[in-house]
Amino acid sequence: MRTVVERELELKLVLSPQRRIPVPARLGYVTDDPYAVHVTFHIDSAHPVHWTFARDLLVEGVFRPCGRGDVRVWPAKAEGRGVVLVALSSPDGDALLEAPAATNWTSCSPSEAGEVREAGEDPAVRTACPGSGCPAGRRPA
User: Fold this and answer.
1) Cα separations (Å) of 78 from 19, 21, 42, 89, 136?
2) Residue 112 and residue 14: Cα distance in Å, rounded?
3) What are the pLDDT digits (tens) for 54-98?
4) Which of 10, 65, 104, 128 has its CB surrounded by the most CB atoms within 10 Å?
5) Could you write out the DSSP letters of every residue in 27-57?
């Protein structure tokens, strides 16, 4: 049985130290791919952008810098508050995204997705994240 757990949130695209613009995103976990997180940016546009990367990268990046190459994640401060920065790089361009540090990337863990299934939910139904956040994901999908 396949279970999909998703959460929508607003990230900030960092244009400069003083300028950020909102970017709607959807983070998701699929039991068929237990070590990956899928993230879709610009979910309200005609041209969403899809990335998939290791769940552990986001989990570790909340506490210390991690990642190389296409995806790097690290904790930081912005305007006096804790944030998590995610740097993405692809042949199409680079992006620096900011998420609140309070986002709990690990709350939609594989075990929680299993609990949703065991609780009798239809596995084909996309389920809202039971916690306050979701993991996110490594290379363009």
Assistant:
1) 11, 14, 22, 21, 21
2) 32
3) 988 888 999 999 998 899 999 999 888 899 999 999 998 999 999
4) 104
5) EEEETTSTTEEEEEE-TTSSS-EEEEEEHHH
The pLDDT of residue 51 is 92
Between CA 141 and CA 129 the distance in angstroms is 22
Tokens describing residue 21: 């613009």
Helix, coil or strand: residue 19: strand
CA atoms within 13 A on the CB side of 4: 10
Are residues 31 and 2 in contact, defined by beta-carbon separation less than 8 angstroms?
yes
92-140 pLDDT, tens digit each: 899 999 998 765 554 544 444 444 333 333 333 333 332 333 333 322 3
Residue showing tokens 């244009």: 15
Residue with the bigger pLDDT between 47 and 79: it is 47
Alpha helices in the chain (DSSP H): 55-61, 110-118
Q: Is the pTM of this model over 0.85?
A: no
Residue-range domains of the chain with CATH: 4-140 (2.30.31.20)
